[in-house]
Amino acid sequence: MGSASTTIRTSRLGLSMLIALTAVQAAGEVTTERGSSIIIFPKVVFDSQGLLTGQPIDTIIQITNTSNSLVFAHCYYMNAAPVDPTRPISEANPPRWQEINFDILLTKQQPTHWVVGSGRPQNPSDPICAGDPKNNTVTNRDCVNAGFDPGRVPLTPDPFVGELRCIEVDSSGAPINGNHLKGEATLVTPEQSAPFATADASKYNAIGLLGLNSDLNSNNSDFTLCIGGGVSAECPGGAEYSPCPETVILNHFAEGAANPVIDAHGNGPSSVTTELTIVPCTQDLENLERPRFTVQFLLTNEFEELFSASTTVDCWGNFRLSDIAFNIFNEAVIGTRFVQTQMKAPPDQSGFLAVAEEFHSQPGIERRAALNLHGDGKRIRADIIRIPEGR
Amino acid sequence: MKTWCLPIAIIAAIAVSGVGIPARSSATVASDQPGAILVFPKIVVDTTQPPKTPRGRIDSLIRISNTSDEPITLKCFYVNANGHCRGAPSVICDPYNPEAVNLCATDDFCIPGWQETDFVVNITARQPVAWLASQGASLCDQSLDPDVPCFPLGDSRSGIGGQTNRDTRVPPVPENPFVGHLKCIAVDRNEVPKEHNALKGELEIIRSNEDDLDVQAYNAIGIRALAGRNDGDNTLVIGGVGQCVEGSRANAVCGHRNDCPGGTCRLPEYEGCPNILILDHFFEGANDPVSGDRINTVLTLVPCTEDYERQVPVEAPIQFLVFNEFEQRFSTSRIINCFHEFRLFDIDGARPGDVRSIFSAAVNGTLTGQTRMRGVTGDDPRLGYTWLGVAEEFRDGAGSAAFNIHYHGARPQSDFIHLP
Fold it and tell me: Please, which residues have CB within 8 angstroms of residue B358's CB and are 6 or more apart in sequence?
């Protein structure tokens, strides 16, 4: 009997190992299209007056529980707006680096959303969307908070620029490897004067960090989250989440290049510019230490010619490519309309994640389109997210 | 101690080596990593003046880059999914948009099409290239219009190591207006499929009129090749477990040729397409909470399996599960064929503005929802019947945005791309 139970235990253990090994083999880099345990929205903007962005803008956050179980998450806004939003960022007017956090709860398969500038109050009597089938008319379209409220989502300051990251936890608040969260962010500019005469929207998927070994939950549930890497003093059990990519790849127009469709339709002259938003993988929300890291750019033009540049990002970076390194991204310098840019951080600094927005313009009109970037390779060094204890 | 160490060691060794267990691709496709096959689920063109479709004057810009230091050849396939009138085959119609002007005669109707056109693109190391779907592209040496994207490395100029784009010529899409999709497969110079996970791509759909502009972009979906698996034939095996072909164990699961006496073990050559597609969306007719504009979502689905050899389109049902923010669930299903572009309300047969659709905000009561889509396994139990797709959000009187949809899981069955 003892032998038989040992064999069963052995088989279970062996199968668990098999599952664990399979899970490790299946674990890849960050993802923008699978349920994850940490989701990161690199670009979140609310600016009702257009003080920072030139036009009023707000962001709609959508998050969904892709599982049949209840899911809890801690979410953290990181405000990178300058102390005085009417003046540019400088040493005398630094970014705030202010963290605001809150909890959300999603029932099985529940989608939820909120508008960053409005938050989401808890009110079970929110009016629901409604229609009259007899007359085939919608009688209430203004049902913005209808549905189970995921929790009380706070309003952000106005203006707010920065990031949002949500970490899946259990009911006690301990981080877990559930891989149940997905999300999208929609940046919406309401109707204004030219060049945004009519409303416009761009949308990207949240970037997900997969919890590893989710069948066994190898996450040690402490408040130091190990993103990739091996065993170390900070990460005695090794990686808990998939590593950040070694290289982030962006295909883009050279700055100022013409959009061939606009010109072919006779509506030119046109031009395209790209805005890149970069956030670090490492983040210390306990001590509010600002990760400062270098981003190396390797550009290849259509002639297969190589160029390189670098910039420094302090916690959250958001810039037009034309603002980097003596206009190297400009079409006149790089020589072709289309460019591939590969970006890396030095191995001893924080890894990073990014999204891009393209701004296409023809006379009197400008329009935006967001893109998730590609990742290639895995960083060897662990990135660490340290969250405040007891949250 | 000895009694349990041995089985664990054996199982661990099996897991590491993969020997003796069904060979299965462990991951699925990805639009955020370079792959060996790129899928652009939606390409639209209408540059006619005045435009013949309600889409307006529109064109698609296709961008592809090689992320590696080696040159690469692509074998690309446009699939023309234009509808044509049954009684007048030269007349293009739109079978996907119930609001489209019916260009067919009163007693005629629109039949969806499936017609492939293929071409070859040579890309040098790390090179980004692009072309307009309406115009195609050739070497810049041969290009007549300097403002149209072209391939710059040809007879007059070469890249590092003498690499060029020679022998590349991308035809314009075969009809204007056009709706369809594009698949590009990494091959060698002899057009034999190659394991080269170095392709990334994006597509921009641009609508430009004198007083209006709209731009949306999505990432091409990459299918990664599995190391050491490609047998170089013209049947590409996408995901699934190994399966015996012919022999005494035909159709049985296998991990090695020895598992299939008298036959061969067909192993997956590429990572699998997803079991379930997940779309977060605004319900139809809801108002954007920021701009106040009414939102509609358009979903485009294409099959993972494609038979370019026999020109046979895949037809299969898709099950849709819809969840609102009250955790309430609705479901519906549709049989789709080859390529399908839906407004969400069209999935369950409603008309524009119909408040009876299960995708309507009026029925769901909430602003946003989650829809899970699953292709139903058909008559052939070996075939995966999986789908890929992309979504677009349209705001009345405002801009639109495209985005990639999410995936969940993989299937034990394979999908196949049969090359001519």
Answer: B322, B330, B331, B332, B348, B364
